[in-house]
Design a protein that fits this description.
2 copies of one chain form a homodimer. By secondary structure, chain A is of the alpha/beta class. The first copy, chain A, is built from 14 helices and 11 strands. A 7-stranded mixed β-sheet of chain A has the order 1-2-9-6-5-3-4. A two-stranded antiparallel sheet of chain A has the order 7-8. The longest helix of chain A is centred in the C-terminal third of the chain and has 19 residues. Chains A and B meet through helix 4 and strand 8 of A and helix 4, helix 5 and strand 8 of B. Chains A, B: Catalyzes the conversion of 3-deoxy-D-arabino-heptulosonate 7-phosphate (DAHP) to dehydroquinate (DHQ). Chains A, B: Its cofactor is Co(2+); Zn(2+); NAD(+).
């Protein structure tokens, strides 16, 4: 149970980074860099050092925290820093942090001198259950998420519950939304298990199951030609709401809060355009709205949301394509949905919280 | 003879782009973009259109010509342009131009939405015999060449002698240096054939042989873990001289002129540190200095050249590594050379032209 195999590398669970020393040893790396943001450098780096017996054979590259800094300017800064350090192709980059760090660090590593090795140590629940698996790297351009990136696999991934101790409850819930999604799209039993358990106390076993589900899906379709798109359930509308909130709200939604909204809207679309029953829709709506705070999607934002959806990466030939539930635990993809249905789903979300 | 197979795609020779229509048809692309610089848009685009029976089903993305524009700012511009055009993952990018266009266009395409299809139509001799094969994409950072990039394969490559009609003699010679290199590292007979022929009249058969040699090498080692490094013969010093010239000279050296210098220096190193005989060194020196104009490597530039060599991508563990000739037609790699030998080789080059 303490490791999963994923496309040629391992995902380790609660090993206290024990295999890392050997990986570094065997890789004969010329330099090791740890990439972290200011917060993880403060909170997680001491734990990282402790786990590695005060290992200090690395240079720290620090960046500013936050999704708004997952941009090309920071990448340029990191590329130049690596160059200044004389980093060659045999260097190793260890990404220690949340999804921003693993996405951006993976992108920088996969393009520096046409690609150097990297290892991901996701330190938030969201990055452990989502960004950790599947080889996606990326940065945002003009607030459009992951508009530029690569498919590149890390040498290894380490998931350590220890790091979650420093994660605030709101951030834990952000990751929890992806876990709910994993149940909804692929495993009914897991969904009901999550619901029955206390969402304020997430077990390593539950994290393991989420990573396993995601791993099965991405292994079957690494390049997102088909099946992998089911992981986007809740994300077409969710990403649009997230981008909008990021650009307009004083206190923007977390990723998971936006995806929670997206899942309610897209469950509505699943009922209207696929085979999700009214009872299942109601089940999903009730549970998610119990866990996540209410948010008002302003009517005047609808047009802008539509613009964001148009640039969704799943789209083909100008059509906004959705991944929709057929039932709880089963998902389909490449579904066309009318503009008016999308608007209805946003109104449905707003109504549900007005109750 | 009119096509070569390379890692899952074809390199077509003088087909007047005949297979392109079918590739576009079969790919069911949502959009087709042609990426060109101002010069190729003026000189090559009309030929491109004519070959495709006035095909107009594409949008043109134009950039400024020149190596100094192979930078991240232009990439950002192109990514945003693609975004503005609503380009999705099913779009196709056709890179029409020299190495700057194919390198940068390939990088942009391989990272836009984590990768879209692209086709290369190299229009200079240099890009036909060099950039066209091997799946390297890249851009320069702070004048350091190809510091950021990916290994990504195009859907197809088209080499058309027709485009060379607009290439000035100096640019033809720039590409010819790579052809000489192909002979020197892998095919003695081909080297002597090139020498015997008129370098002002380069045949498609010769281009074909160069592409074939490069293709054999990169197919054996796509990720440049070993053998592929022989293609860097002449490039460790050559790139450094090129970077220096680009930053200091009013009329900078072309790539090939710099590589010609690099090949004389590294032939000297090959004689001193490998098995290249004195006669072979003299043969190479004489031939290259007959074809390429003299250049003075200033003594005060030696330190800066050394700095550029330190950031060469082939280096490992802080060592500048060279690819050296064992004889004409045979090359080895990962050779360490002393700092003083490097300086000697630069002085050897300067002396040779002082004669």
């Amino acid at each position: 149970m303490n490791k999963l195999e994923s496309a040629g590398h391992n995902i380790y669970f609660d090993t206290r980074l024990a295999p890392l020393a050997e990986i570094i040893e065997n890789g004969k790396y010329s330099n090791v860099f740890v990439f972290a943001d200011r917060n993880t450098a403060e909170l997680c780096l001491p734990v990282f050092r402790e786990m590695l017996d005060d290992f200090s054979g690395f240079d720290l590259i620090e960046t500013d925290p936050g999704e708004e800094n997952k941009n090309i300017d920071f990448c340029i800064g990191i590329w130049k820093t690596l160059l200044d350090f004389g980093a060659d192709r045999k260097c190793l980059v260890i990404n220690l942090g949340g999804g921003v760090i693993t996405d951006m660090g993976g992108f920088v590593a996969s393009t520096y001198k046409r690609g150097v090795d990297f290892i991901n140590i996701p330190t938030t629940l969201l990055s452990q259950v989502d960004a950790s698996v599947g080889g996606k790297t990326g940065i945002d351009i003009d607030n459009v998420k992951n508009m530029v990136g690569t498919f590149s696999l890390p040498q290894a991934v380490f998931i350590e519950a220890e790091f979650l101790k420093t994660v605030p409850q709101r951030e834990m819930l952000s990751g929890f939304a992806e876990m709910i999604k994993h149940g909804l799209i692929a495993d009914q039993e897991y969904y009901y298990q999550l619901k029955a358990a206390d969402y304020k106390n997430i077990t390593t076993a539950a994290i393991h199951r989420s990573v396993e589900i995601k791993n099965e899906v991405v292994t079957a379709d690494p390049q997102e030609k088909g099946l992998r798109k089911i992981l986007n359930f809740g994300h077409t509308i969710g990403h649009a709401v997230e981008s909008y909130s990021l650009s307009k709200d004083k206190k923007p939604l977390t990723h998971g809060e936006a995806i929670a909204i997206g899942m309610i809207c897209e469950a509505y679309l699943s009922h209207k355009n696929s085979t999700l029953t009214a009872e299942e829709l109601e089940e999903i709506r009730q549970y998610i709205s119990k866990v996540y705070p209410a948010y008002k999607i302003k009517e005047k934002s609808f047009a802008q949301l539509s613009v964001f959806m148009q640039s969704d990466k799943k789209n083909e030939h100008g059509n906004v394509l959705f991944s929709l539930l057929q039932s709880i635990g089963k998902c389909t993809y490449n579904c066309r949905v009318s503009e008016s249905d999308i608007v209805e789903s946003l109104e449905y979300y707003n109504l549900t919280y007005a109750k």
